[in-house]
Every structure is written in structure tokens, then in C-alpha cells.
Hints:
The chain is an alpha+beta fold. It has one domain: Multidrug-efflux Transporter Regulator, Chain: A, Domain 2 (Orthogonal Bundle). The chain is built from 3 helices and 3 strands, in the order βααββα.
Amino acid sequence: MPNIVGNGVRIIEDDQALTAQEAADLLNVSRPHLVKLLETGEIPQLPKVDRHRRVARFEVLSYKREREAKRASALGDLAHLSQRHRLGY
């Protein structure tokens, strides 16, 4: 039986509020790019605390899943076109 001592579990609430920088880090984008996503409404934001932006963690993760699904679909489309036109990829 494998030794699993030392492995931990971390529980995070979905409605946890993230700072703009934490959300940007989670998406692996710059903070200015995240701010553009918030300002265009692509990711809903929580009410500001003073002048600081806050984002619900579940909104960031939802956006991330959608973005990854779009990327996977686009990659599949490109692979299909490549095979159809015998480009060798």
C-alpha cells in the first residue's frame, strides 16, 4: 500500500472573493488584462472594496473552463482542417 502520509486537503469556498491580482494569477494573465475582462463584463465583478476590485472565485473558474473549452474546440477544428488538407500535422 502506498505511503500517503503528509498529503493535505484544502477546502476553498466557491464564493470566495479574490483580488484582481489573485484572479489574474489564477487565469495566468496580467492584472491589466483581467481588468479589461471585468470592464467588458466577460467576468462579472463584485462591488469594489474602497477602490479595490473583487471577483468571485467561481466566476473566474467558470470563465477559465469556458476559455479552455473554446481553445480545445479551436484546436480540434485546426487538426481536422490540417488532416483534410493533408498538411502533415
